[in-house]
From TrEMBL:
Pfam families: IGPD. Keywords: Amino-acid biosynthesis, Cytoplasm, Histidine biosynthesis, Lyase. Gene3D superfamilies: Imidazole glycerol phosphate dehydratase, domain 1. Belongs to the imidazoleglycerol-phosphate dehydratase family. This is Imidazoleglycerol-phosphate dehydratase. Pathway: Amino-acid biosynthesis; L-histidine biosynthesis; L-histidine from 5-phospho-alpha-D-ribose 1-diphosphate: step 6/9. GO terms for cellular component: cytoplasm. Its EC number is 4.2.1.19. It is found in: Cytoplasm. Its main location: cytoplasm. GO terms for molecular function: imidazoleglycerol-phosphate dehydratase activity.
Length: 192
């Protein structure tokens, strides 16, 4: 069973996460940041991973610490739940349209953490979610999970739609990459 649970407590945040890779897309997410909760719920639903995430952060300062720390802990859970990576497909890619916006996500579960992010957002925030935190969350997640992650929004005008398309495309690409298709380690080097 590919499952992990983690806790992280700092002077800025207190977070508990459990993640089941082979789930049904059930989510129980409470961060105090409504739009972020919505995006994580979509990530869970479209990846078919079960996610429980409870976070308390210093939101009176801003949303940065909470969102980044959620990305860190989610990445760590993802990496632990994968185990030795034997049999996974390893690569994932997905285009997702959201009305006028189109996002493309490509990833490699390679243990070589990297983020390429191309998305221009015009709004400062959506609700109490700072739009600049999309990139920060993705970087924290990718670097802790050991994923090479390329995120490109090809076009669009509505920032809500662009961000939602990113999270849905990430979910579908992750679902593809973690799919078990054998018992071999998917690397010619013999190690990931």
């Amino acid at each position: 069973m590919r499952y992990a649970t983690k806790e992280r407590t700092t002077k800025e945040t207190d977070i508990q996460i459990s993640l089941r890779l082979d789930g049904s897309g059930k989510a129980d997410v409470h961060t105090g940041i409504g739009f972020f909760d919505h995006m994580l719920t979509l990530l869970s639903f479209h990846s078919q991973m079960d996610l429980t995430l409870l976070a308390q952060g210093d939101l009176e300062v801003c949303d940065h610490h909470c969102i980044e720390d959620c990305g860190i802990l989610l990445g760590q859970c993802f990496k632990e739940a994968l185990g030795d990576k034997r049999g996974i497909q390893r690569y994932g890619t997905c285009y997702i349209p959201m009305d006028e916006a189109l996002a493309h996500v490509v990833l490699d579960i390679s243990d070589r953490a990297y983020l390429v992010y191309h998305c221009e957002l015009k709004r400062e925030s959506i609700g109490n979610f700072s739009c600049e935190m999309v990139e920060e969350f993705l970087r924290a997640f990718a670097f802790q999970a050991g994923i090479t992650l390329h995120v490109n929004v090809l076009y669009g005008t509505n920032d809500h739609h662009k961000i939602e398309a990113i999270f849905k495309a990430l979910a579908k690409a992750l679902k593809m990459a973690v799919m078990i298709q054998g018992n071999e380690l998917p690397s010619s080097k013999g190690v990931l």
